C-alpha cells in the first residue's frame, strides 16, 4: 500500500491555528467547548517548552483517564518522526496538564511498553478510530505516553 505524501506546510499552519482556537475555547468555557474532539474523545491541554526555542507551548491532545495516571498518544508527527510536542515532553522531568473543568495536574511522562502499551493503545483506538488507520501508514511505532502524577511533596 503506497504511503500518502507528508502534509504540506499549509496543513501544519491550519493545524496550529485550530490548536490555538481549541485552547482558547477550552479555557474560556472550562472545557465545555474544546474539551472533546470529533466523536467525543476527551481533550486535555499539555504544557511543554520547545527544546530549540525555549518557548512555552500548549498542545490540545486526546487523552485516556487511566486513574491515577493519564495517557496520550504521539500520533501525528510524520511518517518516521514523532511530533515535536512528544520530544519536548520527554525532555522535561515534570510538566502540567489542564483537564476539562479547570483541573490542573503536575505530571511526569514516561513511554508505555509491552502489555501496558497494548492495553492503552486498544483503549485509545476505541475512543478515536483514526489512530488505527494512521498506524497503518507510518513507519514508526506510535508511542503511548503515560502521565504519572508528579510527587509535589517536599523531600527532607
Automatic annotation (TrEMBL):
| Species name | Kibdelosporangium persicum
Q: What is the lineage of its organism?
A: Bacteria, Bacillati, Actinomycetota, Actinomycetes, Pseudonocardiales
Q: Which family does it belong to?
A: Belongs to the F420H(2)-dependent quinone reductase family.
Name of the protein in question: Deazaflavin-dependent nitroreductase
What's the superkingdom here?
Bacteria
InterPro entries referenced in this protein's UniProt entry, alphabetically: F420H2_quin_Rdtase, Split_barrel_FMN-bd
Catalytic reaction annotation: oxidized coenzyme F420-(gamma-L-Glu)(n) + a quinol + H(+) = reduced coenzyme F420-(gamma-L-Glu)(n) + a quinone
Q: Which PANTHER family match?
A: DEAZAFLAVIN-DEPENDENT NITROREDUCTASE, F420H(2)-DEPENDENT QUINONE REDUCTASE RV1261C
Amino acid at each position: 500500500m503506497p504511503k500518502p505524501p507528508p502534509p504540506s506546510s499549509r496543513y501544519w499552519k491550519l493545524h496550529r491555528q485550530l490548536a490555538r482556537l481549541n485552547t482558547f475555547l477550552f479555557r474560556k468555557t472550562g472545557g465545555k467547548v474544546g474539551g472533546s474532539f470529533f466523536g467525543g474523545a476527551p481533550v486535555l491541554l499539555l504544557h511543554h517548552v520547545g527544546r530549540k526555542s525555549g518557548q512555552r507551548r500548549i498542545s490540545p491532545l486526546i487523552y485516556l483517564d487511566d486513574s491515577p495516571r493519564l495517557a496520550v498518544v504521539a500520533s501525528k508527527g510524520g511518517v518516521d518522526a514523532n511530533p515535536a510536542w512528544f520530544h519536548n515532553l520527554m525532555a522535561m522531568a515534570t510538566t502540567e496538564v489542564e483537564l476539562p473543568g479547570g483541573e490542573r495536574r503536575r505530571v511526569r511522562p514516561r513511554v508505555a511498553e509491552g502489555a501496558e502499551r497494548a492495553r492503552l493503545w486498544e483503549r485509545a483506538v476505541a475512543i478515536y478510530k483514526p489512530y488505527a488507520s494512521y498506524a497503518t501508514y507510518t513507519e514508526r511505532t506510535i508511542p503511548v505516553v503515560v502521565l504519572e502524577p508528579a510527587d509535589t511533596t517536599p523531600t527532607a
